[in-house]
Every structure is written in structure tokens, then in C-alpha cells.
Amino acid sequence: MLFPTFDYLVFMVPVLLATWALGHRAMARMVLLLLASYFFYCASPKTDPPPLPWFYAGLLVFSTFLDYACGLALARSSAGLDSQDPAVVARTQRRRNAVLMVSLVGNLGLLGYYKYTDFFVDVFTDLVHAAGVPFVAPHLEIILPVGISFYTFQSLSYTIDVWRRRLEPERSFIKFALFVTFFPQLVAGPIVRANELLPQLHERPRLSPVMMEEGLFRIFKGLVKKVLLGDWIAAQFTDAVFASPEAYTSAEIMLALYAFTVQLYADFSGYSDIAIGSARLLGYDIPENFDRPYQAKNLGEFWRRWHMTLSTWLRDYLFFPLGGSRGSSARTYFNLWLTMFLVGMWHYSPGTSWNFVIYANVHGLAMLYNRWNRERRKDGPRWLRAVTVVTAAAAVGLGCGALAEYGLEVPREGALFCVGFGALMFVLVSWLPQHGGPWITAVHVLLTYHFTVISRVFFRAPDFDTAKAMVAGILRFDGDLVRPGLLTEPLWAALVLGTLYHFTPKRWVDDYAYGVFRRIPGPLLGLLLGLVGLGIMKLMAGTPRAFIYFNF
Q1: Cα 470 from Cα 249, distance rounded (Å)
Q2: Minimal CA–CA distance to 373: which of 396, 356, 341, 342?
Q3: CA distance 88 to 82
């Protein structure tokens, strides 16, 4: 079920009323929300690609039973860890490790099969063809279950935390199942951890006027983002450019990347806003997922602001267990690259082939540079520092050129431009002070923003051939600007205002706009929300668009 639809309104209102009517009966309330969550998951929207078969909910049931059972098994064996006998402790730890392995294999095995089988088949086929061996890959037609990347990580974090003895196992199966399936964040996050939601399920929820206002405001804000800055921009412009990039000029392709940057943020942060607002109306708090990411001054800060629940999940459950930054420099850089590579590959969707391998490595290597630039010595001889930067810049430039010419099949002139541009950007960012006045900060923000914009070629392109066509189109430098009539005046206004919105102070919306929203009289607010709903239906033309992150 999609949030910005009349179906969700018809679903949410009775669920909300029934939930609060059962506020004094905790178990009945839990059962109601659990059933509502499964109904929400199975009531697939009529979108393209087509909705999932209802029986895919069985995967959700499997993950729930698996990790609930693993949590109880870990609890039963935890007493042995406190034994004074080293043999008992070792035997207990082996048993606990085996239970954790069952959870890891079960959860990640399902995720790997449904999400990455297509990828490995494509990679194997490409490598075999590169070796000159004819091979026809089998067409498996695996349908990616909606939300599997989100609820897998959410359920798995519970087992890991119980294994670490940082969390007491949940004895109530109903409450644990609701934690896994809680419908506001079930299919596209935020990724909620057990210690964030399970304690709330043990308390009697209370709804205050402030919570109602906050919930409605977040839903209102999310709907405007999703429909106006997400769906409408996509339908009017970006979808057409990414479908046939060869039909557009270099400037138009670049403008489409700017437009998609607005669209992607509006789509995913809009979903998160509606999810957080819906949870607030039900009496629960779920974590924030975005913090004005395009205001980041470097890529590390960007990932701390973008999809924050995924970034912190991989930090806590992968980067730190690998050793984090406690080992040698080489090990630290490897841990950082692997974490960022998996952040990128987590976004892979079936059919995109090599796109996300490139996307993941581009961001991973940029994160390594970000750390190197922050920690390199700046107090040695000036000539030595200059030689180091110039040598590294030459290597980066050659790497960019090799990727362009041999990986993306860009003509030699375009590849040479990539060599020079990559080296120049490396020198520029290395030369800029890490900290400074507002102008230095603005330059850092501008460079980081454009890095994310350009890398989104590989994020949005539906396949590798389209990504290559997009890059080749940008590097044509055909001199033509945006052709008259391609974008309407309202669309231009949406693109400009949507871009500027990201760079406004957070308090303008969270404090000032929210303050205005709170002062609107109830009847007028109801009329306003009704008009917004009517406008949404008109803009969608009766055809809802699935959220982009449903593909992940």
C-alpha cells in the first residue's frame, strides 16, 4: 500500500481509531497493529512494476520466527557465559555463535538470493563474454520482495544485540512480530532497532495534542515532498531523459541529474516523514532518517545525514566489529572501504548490472580520500606535500580516464577530459582548508553536492548501457542549452524551489513552518488537508507511483 493514496487514508483512519479505542488493552492493541501491518504489506498498490504475490508475506513470517527463536535460544544459553569453568564458557560461546550463524545465514541468505542472484548471473556472464566464451545466461525472473532489505536488517540487528548481551530477548512473540512488521516503516524504513521500538511496546501509549500536531505536520510535509517534488518532477522530465538519453543535449542530461537529485531526496525523505508522522499518531517514536544531507561539507558528513539509519547500522554492525579505526592504517582504510562499498551495494536493484559496483566504489574510494585528506600531515616540507598531492592527483585522474574509456566506452576526447577534471578536483579539494569562514564552507558544500549529483548517473540509470549513454551524453559538450518548451514554467519553479529548499536552515521548516501549522484553526486545517489531497490526486492523474526505495 502506498502512503499518498486514498487507500491509505481509508486504511489509516479506522486503524487509528481502533488502536486508541484499545489503548487500555495492551495485547488486543498489539494484535490489531500486527494484523494491520500484514494487511498493509499484502495490499500491494497497482503500480509498475506489478504488485507482489500475497504469499511473499511468508518471507516476513520466516524472518520473524527465525530471529524470535534465535533470541530465545541465545537467552537460554547466556547463563553459561558466567560460569567459572573456562570449558563451560567456551562450549556456551560456540553454541551461541552457532545460533547467531543460523540467523545470519537465514536472513542474509534470503536477501542474497532475492536481491543479488541476478547481479551475480550478470557479472559471470560479462566475465565469460570478456574471455571470448559464448554463454547464454538463464533468465530467472526473480521478483524482489518489497522491504526485504529493511526488515532483514531490522530483524537481524535484534539477534546480534541479544548475542552481544546488550539486549534482553523479547518473550512476547506478538510484540516481537510487531517490532519486525510495524507498518509505517515496514517497506522503506527508517530501519528501527529493537532497543528503539520494543521498550515502547511495553508501555501504555499516550496521545497528546502536541503528538497529533507533530504527526499531521510530518505527514503533510512528506506528502508535498513525495508528490510535488518527487513524482511530478519524475513524470514531467527525469523519466523521459533516463529512458532515451541520446535524444537530449549535454545540458539537458545534466539538468536531469539535478532534477533527479531533488526527486530522490523528496521521494525518500518524504516517505520517512510520512512514516514518522504515522507512527506519532499511533503513539510511537521512530528515528529520523535525514538531516539536510545536501548541506554536507564532505562525503563522510553526507552519509551521516543521508539514510542515517542504514549508515549507523552498517557502522555499528560491520565497521566497528571489523575493528573500526583501532588497527593499522591499512586495516582502517579497508574497513572503511568495505563498509562504504556495502552501503552502495545495499542500494542495488535487479537489472542494474555494474551500475552499483561503480557507484559503491566511487563513494567508497571518495570516503578513503576524505579520511586521507583529513589526517595527512600538513606540517612537513612544502615541496614534499606538493609532490604527494600532485602524484595522488595524477593517479586519480588516470583512474577516472581509465574508467571513462575502458569501462564506460567514452571516446578518447571525453576520457582525456575526465583525466584532467579528476586531477583538478583532487588538487582543489586537497588545497582547500578543512575549516574556515562561510565562503570556504560554501565551496566545500558545493563540491560535495556536485559529487553526489554526478554519481547519481549510476544510481538512477536502469541498466549499464543507459549509464554509459548518460555519461557519453554529458561529455559530448555539444554546446546546446535546454531547448525551449522542454520544461514548463511550473516545472522550472519546482526544480528551483526544490533545490533551494535543501539549503535552507532546518529551523525554517521544523520551527517556523511548524509554528504556523500549529496556529491554523482545526476546521481550516481540515479544509487545507482536503485540498492538498485533491491536488495530489490531480497531479498523480489517478496513477500512484511506488517509492524509489521500494526497489531496494
Answers
A1: 10
A2: 396
A3: 9
Q: Residue 69 contacts by C-beta under 8 Å, 6 or more apart in sequence?
A: none
Tell me the pTM: 0.89
pLDDT in tens, the chain (552 residues): 778 777 888 899 899 999 988 878 888 999 999 999 999 888 765 555 556 666 778 889 999 999 999 999 998 887 777 777 788 788 888 888 999 999 999 999 988 888 888 878 777 777 777 777 777 767 677 777 888 888 899 999 999 999 998 888 999 999 999 999 999 988 887 999 999 999 999 888 887 888 888 898 999 888 888 888 888 888 888 988 998 998 899 999 999 999 999 999 988 888 899 999 999 999 999 999 999 999 999 998 999 999 999 989 998 998 888 888 887 888 898 999 998 888 888 887 776 778 888 888 899 999 999 888 888 766 667 777 788 888 888 998 999 989 888 888 888 888 899 999 999 998 888 888 888 788 898 999 999 999 999 999 998 888 888 999 999 989 988 877 888 888 888 888 888 888 888 888 888 888 888 888 888 887 887 787 777 777 666 666 655 666 666 666
As a three-state string, the secondary structure of 313-344 is HHHHHHHCCCCCCCCCHHHHHHHHHHHHHHHH
Q: Whole-angstrom Cα distance, residue 153 to residue 193?
A: 9
Question: Hey, how many other C-beta atoms are within 10 angstroms of the C-beta on 420?
Answer: 12
What is the distance between the alpha carbons of residues 229 and 270, in angstroms, rounded to a whole number?
Answer: 9
Q: What is the DSSP string of 265-318?
A: HHHHHHHHHHHHHHHHHTT-------S-GGG-SSHHHHHHHSSHHHHHHHIIII
- Cα(412)–Cα(189) distance, integer angstroms: 43
Residue 200's closest CA among 134, 284, 126?
284
Q: What does the alpha-carbon distance between residue 180 and residue 497 come to, in Å, rounded to a whole number? A: 37
Phi-psi region of 84 (alpha: psi -120 to 50; beta: other; left: phi over 0): alpha
Enzyme catalytic residues: 347
